[in-house]
Design goal:
single chain; 165 residues; mainly alpha; two-stranded antiparallel ribbon; 7 helices; 4% strand
């Protein structure tokens, strides 16, 4: 059985037994510990088997698999999650800008507010990434609807007599 399958099965079982808030509370603590160590040693090369990295971060290999699942989109060399075994070699080459952006997207303030980010990015750079994140979520409607145009809802009425009221 792949480590990824063990991870997903464990999460489902945990949530059934204790509830989703309990899972996120407990997993969030583990995730914060791993990120604190990873960010504080951001210049170090972090690679090894899944078991070796789990030992390095002082977590079970199943929880490290969960961490890998979460950081995978921010890695320069993503891990093939479904094929991951305990002896699979992983290199955690992180795109830190993308990681910070993804943490904002996940609304993981307990991670993007870690003080270790100060050693990686200046306050100005973090604000720039936050602006980029906000801009990426802003919807801009370039198609202006005139009041006498057909309503986009498909009613057949003029916009001013339908949704434009």
């Amino acid at each position: 059985m792949s480590l990824y399958k063990e991870w997903t099965d464990m999460v489902v079982d945990y949530v059934k037994r204790r509830g989703e808030p309990a899972f996120w509370h407990d997993y969030g603590e583990i995730e914060r510990r791993i990120y604190t160590k990873l960010l504080s040693k951001y210049q170090d090369e972090v690679k090894g088997t899944m078991d070796e990295l789990a030992d390095y971060f002082e977590v079970s290999n199943i929880y490290f698999m969960g961490f890998t699942d979460g950081i995978n989109d921010s890695l320069l060399e993503p891990v093939q999650l479904e094929e991951t075994e305990r002896d699979t070699k992983v290199n955690l080459k992180v795109d830190f800008e993308k990681l910070y952006f993804n943490m904002l997207d996940a609304k993981a303030d307990y991670l993007y507010e870690l003080p270790q980010w100060e050693g990686i990015f200046s306050r100005e750079k973090r604000k720039e990434i936050q602006r980029d994140y906000r801009d990426s979520k802003m919807v801009v409607n370039n198609d202006k609807i005139g009041r006498n145009d057909a309503c986009p809802c498909g009613s057949g009425k003029k916009y001013k007599k339908c949704c434009g009221k």
